[in-house]
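INFO  loader      accepted 1 record
INFO  loader      residues=322
INFO  predictor   begin
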Amino acid sequence: MSKLAGRAMAALIGFAFAGSALAQSYPAKPIRVIVPFAAAGGVDLGTRAITEKMSEILKQPMIIDNRGGGATVIATDLAARAPADGYTVFIAPTTMVINPSIRSKLPYNWETDFVPVSMMMTLPFVVCASRDFPANNMKELAQLAKANPDSISFGSGGAGTVAHFAGELFAQRSGVTMIHAAYKGEGPALGDAMGGQISVMFSTLVSASGHLKQGRMKALAVTSRKRSSLLPDIPTAAEQGYADYDVFSWGALVVPKGTPPAIVEKLNAAANEAMKSKSVQDRLIALGAEPGGGSAAELAKFMKSEALKWADVVRKAKIVIE
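INFO  predictor   done
INFO  writer      dumping tokens
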């Protein structure tokens, strides 16, 4: 072996030992968890459930830092600029991979500025309407839209939200036209759907579940391919003939680019272990969420597929939001 090759081998061995030592000593202080939403929302509460258990596993507090507003751009930019030392982590929202398709200027590049760690949770939507709405399922909704062009509206909690794109995607997959009604929050949209001012509402499960269980509204479908644990009796759109329709928002654990792989692996292991806890799973289900999990590589592949899917929806619907 040449001297150069020997030095290269020694360097590799040194890096391996350094990585191992780093993983053993990490974390040595509290970890900041940036959440791009206000406190008490579904992603925030789900994150708290998981990180509380992760804190026990890692033996250091994980402190939530809520940074809502700016269509999640403010928090994402803050996280992208954080030191890559494992002591600042970010709960990446679905909008992180959607925003490049609808906003011409962003202060970060999610593909190059972050390293995926683990999926934390998925949150499907429920399509709901007033009790008097003539359609009772997604097939009937599509038939109604075809028979009455430009008369069917769907509400969401805001333009550019995942719920907005969930409605656009269903319209595209079913070959119908529906008018989007953007609201400033889910509450007003649910109120108008309940009163019949809009045809249907794409809502988070936790926001709509009370109305549905008390009979004030009816559900047409859950948007994910798998039924919800919170509302297990509601069929999915896929079960109703739309096999390729699988929509949910998500929160994923990511870290700034350059974070040592040993730290990424330790965070991934802690997150996966936390999500196996029944107490964590129960808390997530109560929020209308499903626990995530899996490897960093799986998350990276998923995020790229989501970016492509929503970019296609935006292009076909000609959506521009600034």
